Amino acid sequence: MWRFINLRWEERVMYPSSVTCTYGRWVNLQKTFYEDDGWFDQRIGADSPPIFWVGAGQTVPSPSYGFVVDTEVGNEEVYQKITIQEGCSGLWTTGASVVSPIGTITNR
User: Fold this and answer.
1) What is the tally of structural domains in the chain?
2) DSSP per residue over 22-90, as a string?
């Protein structure tokens, strides 16, 4: 996760992700962002980028951007859950989920 200020002076976070395909496929991603609180994680955002094509043997970056959250004293521990569907010739998989490692955003 990277913290930055955009041209509107808003503090934002970039959640990195990329998709690699062995065979050419259409890809549909559903991303949900969480703040790690141990027992009860807080959902802090979501993103569903447009469906895109990943060619055979290619890796395509698919970053998402969210606002910086401040839900506690100290740093924020955040992660993303990505549900991936792949499709070819009109047929789509049911979807598989991947959870990223927890990253730290330093509160200022």
Assistant:
1) 1
2) SS-EEEEEEEEEEE--TTSPEEEEEE-PPPEEE-TT-EEE--EEEE----SSSPEEEEEEEEEEEEETT
CATH code of the domain in which 31 resides = 2.60.40.10
Q: How confident is the model at residue 4 (pLDDT cuts 50, 70, 90)?
A: low
Distance CA 101, CA 81 (A): 10
Instruction: Tell me the two tokens of residue 58.
Output: 């290619």
Give the predicted TM-score (pTM) of the model.
0.83
The range of the structural domain enclosing residue 68 comes to 2-105
- Nearest Cα to Cα of residue 32 among 20, 49, 12: 49
* pLDDT recorded at residue 107: 73
